[in-house]
From TrEMBL:
Family: Belongs to the metallo-dependent hydrolases superfamily. Adenosine and AMP deaminases family.
Native species: Sphingobium xenophagum
Keywords: Hydrolase, Membrane, Metal-binding, Transmembrane, Transmembrane helix, Zinc
Protein name (Swiss-Prot/TrEMBL): adenosine deaminase
Membrane recorded as keyword: yes
Gene Ontology BP annotations: adenosine catabolic process; hypoxanthine salvage; inosine biosynthetic process
GO cellular component: cytosol
Cofactor: Zn(2+)
EC code(s) of this entry: 3.5.4.4
One Pfam family hit: A_deaminase
Length: 547
């Protein structure tokens, strides 16, 4: 390094140090690092320019200890798909109170549930105007969500999982009247988080009614029960499709789609995973599942089937193996229907230890799940290393819900199996689960992945790509094998002749191509290179110092 160059840098740093009150010993140390690292300037060539991806990764590394800066960065990052997001649970308590007020519903002053009129005081008060009585309003928010549980201010006598699962009964009466708007709000939140695709776990009134008809039936002979249900399926499926036509139209109107005032939410693709409830009587669960498989075969908006509700519920524990057999039975009759199953949403002490040893394995090996929701108890599974190896080999994806797992199960930080899955080569995605109930969002899930799980930009980018590659969107993937690897032959280059026509035929690949363009634009916005003391550049040091 030349003396003139060194003096220029020292002068710059000294002036800044004087203004900031920084000791000159630090300045001297900086100059020494510059001189030792640089070597003779006549022998040095300019440093190779960092790629946009490397600049973006370096920027995240610089802000990793500042949650506010991380939030801004991660909010803007394109995030691909949210593959584990439940209708109803995605909406916030304030939405339910607004709908309850508009519909003339009441609030119980005992349970703080929404109830039907008449509103007879003092046991019931009108939802309209509730915001003017803040203690009642606040207690309703708490009844509809898990607000405060992670901050240590939740009810000490109520567990996170009991509060969480109780919320659905609390706000349920308001949801049923506003399903289309609820879905539109879910799309709006996805757009705000730069999520381009949502697979929404959802039910259907027709499926519930069909299940109720079979509630007392004998489930010991699945073939006989299916023969009884099959003739009822076409009408039930037609009814559900008509309902969803209405929901989609309501949602599009709410988001302004097709108008000059269309919201960014209109660009968020949404598909549905029909979700059966595992805490019902066996024949009722089977009827719901049979309906779900038939619906997914008939309506392209429904891309798969799921099963949910508290996995630790005594009925769910008792019937778990039977449910997996039911799903395998129906999968054999509907081989094209995809499966994402809640499995392993359990932890030590919540159930007997023996019930931690097989749920994920049975979901994968018996039911044939392509994705696992939660998967928290993997370390307790019998021969967990062999199961992990199978999931990695077969690319069985785990949907990770960091906030939900922390609130409901108390599992977070180093206790969470995210790192175990990643080290085993099992694909993972980040998802929101019930972002309204948890009062979280997708950006917060990514922030937690960085601050609690130690993930960095390359890890996040892989997860973003996973979210579309392992989605149940129809068509081929943009990637030949694993996301981020070799591209499909038709689109090795996005400008290749025929690529556009191929994308038009493959919905999944088209969504992935859009994501790649969004990622490129996002990375192009992070042009600052990190300070490198080995390169004697006054311009680069001045830029870094100004930052």
């Amino acid at each position: 390094m030349s003396a003139i160059s060194s003096l220029n840098i020292l002068g710059l740093v000294a002036r800044k140090a004087a203004k900031q009150g920084i000791a000159m010993t630090w300045v001297a140390a900086l100059l020494m690092a510059l001189m030792v690292g640089a070597g003779p300037v006549v022998a040095r060539t300019p440093a190779t320019a960092l790629s946009n991806e490397a600049r973006t990764a370096a920027y995240l590394d610089r802000i990793v200890h500042s949650s506010p800066r991380l939030r801004i960065f991660l909010q803007a990052m394109p995030k691909g798909g949210d593959l584990h997001n439940h209708a109803g649970g995605a909406n916030f308590a304030e939405d339910y109170l607004r709908w309850a007020a508009a519909d003339g519903l009441c609030i119980s002053t005992v349970t703080y549930h929404i109830v039907e009129p008449p509103c007879t005081p003092p046991e019931h008060i009108p939802a309209a105007g509730l915001e003017r009585t803040y203690p009642h309003y606040s207690r309703a928010i708490d009844a509809f969500s898990t607000r405060g549980f992670e901050a240590g201010v939740g009810d000490p006598e109520v567990s996170g999982y009991d509060r969480f699962f109780a919320t659905f009964d609390a706000f349920g009466p308001a949801y049923s009247r506003h399903v289309g708007e609820a879905m539109a709000l879910t799309r709006r939140q996805a757009a705000a988080d730069h999520v381009s695709y949502v697979e929404l776990g959802s039910g259907a009134r027709a499926g519930w009614l069909l299940g109720m008809k079979m509630a007392d039936a004998d489930a010991s002979d699945l073939a006989a029960l299916y023969a009884r249900i099959a003739p009822l399926l076409p009408d039930a499926v037609a009814s559900a499709r008509a309902d969803y036509d209405g929901y989609d139209a309501q949602g599009a109107k709410f988001n302004g789609c097709g108008t000059a005032d269309r919201e960014p939410a209109c660009d968020v693709a949404m598909r549905y995973l029909y979700t059966a409830i595992r805490t019902n009587p066996p024949a009722q669960v089977f009827a719901q599942l049979a309906f779900g498989f038939a619906l997914a075969d008939a309506d392209p908006r429904f891309v798969g089937v799921n099963i949910a509700a508290p996995e630790h519920d005594p009925v769910a524990v008792r019937d778990y193996a039977l449910h997996m057999q039911m799903i395998a039975f129906l999968k054999a009759r509907h081989p094209k229907v995809q499966l994402s199953l809640h499995a392993g949403e359990l932890t030590l002490g919540l159930v007997p230890s023996r019930d931690l040893s097989f749920h994920i394995r049975d979901a994968v090996q018996i039911a044939g799940a392509r994705r696992i929701g939660h998967g928290i108890d993997i370390a307790y599974e019998t021969d967990a290393p062999a199961l992990l190896a199978q999931m990695a080999r077969d690319q069985v994806v785990v949907e990770i819900n960091l906030t939900s797992n922390a609130v409901i199960l108390g599992v977070k930080g180093s206790d969470h199996p995210l790192s175990l899955y990643r080290e085993a080569g099992v694909p993972v995605v980040l998802s929101t689960d019930d972002e309204g109930v948890s009062r979280s969002d997708m950006t917060n899930e990514y922030l937690r992945a960085v601050t609690e799980q130690g993930l960095r930009y390359a890890d996040l980018k892989q997860i973003v790509r996973n979210g579309l590659h392992y989605s149940f969107l129809p068509g081929d993937s943009l990637w030949q094998d694993r996301p981020g690897g070799a591209r499909a032959a038709a689109c090795v280059s996005m400008d290749a002749p025929g690529c556009g026509a191929w994308l038009a035929k493959n919905v999944k690949a088209a969504a992935q191509a859009r994501l790649e363009r969004d990622l490129q634009a996002f990375e192009a916005g992070h042009l600052e290179e990190p300070l490198d003391l080995r390169v004697g550049s006054t311009v680069r040091i001045e830029a870094a110092w100004k930052e």
